[in-house]
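Quick start: read one record
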Amino acid sequence: METAENLSVCVITYNDEAFIENCIKETKDIAREMIVADMGSADNTADLAQRLGAVVLKLNRQDDFSAVKNDCMDHAKGRWVLFLQANETVLQPDQLDALLDNPNIEGYLMLVDYHSERYRIASPLQALRLLRN
């Protein structure tokens, strides 16, 4: 897949030990590199991600999500960066090639569907998740 050469995936985590393994395993084949930006987890999120082959940035910036994203962009080697949270994966990775081949686009809004354990509704929204580096 051509995408793998052009894409860095950055997973932003905080105490996500329960989710990080699945996220990395489901996503690593579509990316040139996996970066886990850990915002100061007290669990084994960062150690587990490192054992699974991810580049781990230990940032301890729980109050500055924008700075964490900027740190990811600074470390990413791919021409594109896809931002995920540890409980997310890419549903249709085969469609990424078409997105990344468009020379006129700097970023994509992607549909993110947040399900809540506390509520019986889903609230889909669009978020800027895929950016040219």
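Helices lie at 3-6, 17-27, 45-51, 65-75, 96-100.
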